[in-house]
Amino acid sequence: MFRDIDPDDKRVTPIKVHKRFMAQKFGATDNTQYLGVMSTQGTRATSAQLHQFSTGSLSESGPQFSLVSGGVTYTKYGYLIWHEVYNMFFRYAVTGSDKSTTSPQPQFVFDKYHRPWGRGRIQSSSNTVPDYETLKIRTYHDQFNVFSIPQRLYGEGIKTGSIEITDYSTNGVISIKDDGYGNLYDTDFETNYLSGSPEAVNGSGSAIGVVNYDLGLVIVTDTGSYGTVGQGSGANGWKLEWDSTKTIQEYEFGCIIPPNTFNRTRNISITPGRSGSMNINSTVATQDDYYWKGNSYVTQSAIQKLRAILPSPAEGSYNTTSAYEAATDVESFATHSFFAPYITSIGLYNDLNELLAVAKVSRPIRNDPELALSFVVRFDI
Predict the structure, then answer these.
(1) If both were cysteines, with which of 24, 34, 305, 312 could 239 make a disulfide (CB 3.0 to 4.6 Å apart)?
(2) Confidence band (pLDDT; 50, 70, 90) for 116?
């Protein structure tokens, strides 16, 4: 029994879902090669050093970092890392840039569409200076410590506010988070950072780095207490956690059963002796089918296959090598006016009558012929 679903009873809703990942190079655990997560360090080069750059010499390339992942060796060069990061995220984020000599030009940074300057619109409680100046957002030095996450591990983008770095390279444990706007801060000074009031003496509580959620880059820019973050291993190693993002589709179908419909059943339990309810022509009944089982091919006819899967005593109804006609009689309990089948599952079919999905109800529901029933089927893809 089939019924078309009205177009107005169909709905598709996109939903963003997230999954937590952790890369670590700490203690005896190092899963960075397996995951493809790379921790590197960019060093600022002079114009002369860039002019003489050579991949074959440490003195002419800066620090080199290699990662073997999937059988492929990836090598990064410190001088190139620094200048690449600088041009993408910092070049126009400071005064005296190529675009302006008086104020930052965040609209020209590479990640301008992901609100890296969201905090620039917030005024701190203690003064009227924009937070991006008070917190020294996008301040850079002669060194960048860069974590690079492969796209397959962050999907459509890193979830904002999900970054956590735990570093053990100093005497104490350093814990770093992102503020959801693309900036990193030390959780020991979270109150100072979120209130826009870093300590006056040493600036603790200021921004210490940048996150690019779309490219999977986590960049520590502070070279003071955080200069070794992400550069150690073993007991002096680090952990990096983040949430990936993926958009899935939630499909919702309203299945309406009007009164006095779907009040018949094809269940063999209503036929005398649980006789068969399927018509099988003689060709199908006798034609052999071959399939691989174990280490050899097995030959079975359609009848033999049915008998193998049907419960007793129904398999006896198909004990034949000729055509079979479905039962036409039903038990007396199914003929009176109060009989109504119970609904236990709902199948969704395409226009070719191919079964695409099956929904199960939590308990059998009687299909009262005097009432209309409505079922909402949802599933995610």
Answers:
(1) 24
(2) very low
Query: Are the beta carbons of 22 and 240 closer than 8 angstroms?
Result: yes
Residue entry with tokens 């079979």: 324
CB–CB of 61/54 below 8 Å? Answer: yes
Determine how many CB atoms are found less than 10 A away from the CB of residue 111.
Answer: 19
Q: Is the pLDDT of residue 114 over 60?
A: no
The whole-angstrom separation of Cα 173 and Cα 238 is 10
Coil/strand/helix, residue 313: coil
Q: Give all strands (DSSP E) within 126-277, no chain letters.
A: 143-148, 164-167, 174-178, 183-186, 209-212, 217-220, 238-257
Segment 186-209 shows an average pLDDT of 87
- Distance, CA of 42 to CA of 80 (rounded, Å): 7
pLDDT above 90: percentage of residues in the chain: 45
In angstroms, the Cα distances linking 159 to 45, 71, 117, 325 are 33, 29, 17, 60
Q: Which residues of 241-257 are buried (b: 16+ CB within 10 A; e: fewer)?
A: ebbbbeeeeebebebeb
Give dist(CA 179, CA 209) in Å, integer. Answer: 11
User: Tokens at residue 196, please?
Assistant: 């826009």
- The Cα 288–Cα 278 span in angstroms is 19
Q: Which helix (H) or strand (E) holds 282?
A: helix 282-286
DSSP state of 57: -
Q: Which residues 6+ apart lie within 8 Å of 159 measured at CB?
A: 18, 213, 242, 243, 244, 245
* pLDDT tens per residue across span 291-334: 556 666 666 666 566 555 555 555 455 555 555 666 677 788 87
**Contact call for residues 103 and 109 (beta carbons, < 8 A):** no
Contacts of 232 (CB under 8 A, 6+ apart): 25, 167, 168, 169, 238
Separation CA 53–CA 49 (nearest Å) = 6
